[in-house]
Amino acid sequence: MAERARIQKAIAHAGLMSRRKAEEAVAAGRVRLDGRPAVLGDRVDVDAQTLTLDGVPLPLNPGLETHLLYKPVGVISSAADPGSRPTVVDLIDSDKRLYPVGRLDADSEGLILVSNDGELANRVAHPRHGITRTYLARVGGRPSARGLRALTEGVELEDGPARASAARLVAAHDDRSLVELVMVEGRNRQVRRMMAAIGHEVGALVRTAIGPLTDRRLRAGESRVLAPSDVRRLMEAGGRR
Is 105 noted as a catalytic residue in this protein? Predict the structure, then answer.
C-alpha cells in the first residue's frame, strides 16, 4: 500500500498554498476527499485518491507532468507517426510517457499541451467542460461584420453546424487580414473550414491560448513545464462539470 500523506501536506505539495493555509482550507470546509468533506487528520494516497479544493481537483501525483509546447508547422499532434514525421512528443525533453492533449493540424502552429495527466487532458479536450482555444488566422480579403457575426451565430459545415465563441477583425492590410477566433470545439481543420464558409481562405493559423494559458516567450519548438498554479487555472477554467 502506498504511503499516505497528511492532508495538509498533500495540498501543500500541490504547490498552491502553505500547510497552514491548507489546514485553514480544510477547517473551512473547502476541501473534499473522494467526494466527502475532508477533516484534519485525514491521510491521502496521492496515487489513488482525489482531493478537490472549492470543487476543483488538485494535482497531487508527483509523477504527473504537463508541458506547454509551441508546435511548429509540419509537426504532428501525436505520440507517434507511422510515416516517421516529427511529433509533438519528440520535442519534449522528458522520461515520462506523454501524449498530446487534443489536436493542432500539421499545417498550423502554436500552443498545445503534452501530458500524462488524464484528468487534466479530459478537462481540456472535452468540449463539455468549455475550455476555449484562441486562434489568430491570416486570411485573404477582409471579412465583413456580417461574416464575422456568422462565425459566432453558426455556419454549416459538411460534418454539421459550427460556431465560434467570439470572432473579431484584428488588422487588415491590402488583400489580407488577421482574424481572432475563440473556439470551444476542436474538430478537424474547423477554423479553416469555418473561414472558408464565409469566403476567406486561411493562409496561416496560430493557436495563441488554451483557456487562460498563453506564453508569448515561447518560440516554435520550445516548451515549458506547467507550474501547479497553471494546472489549477486550467482546472478552474473547466469548471466543476
Answer: yes
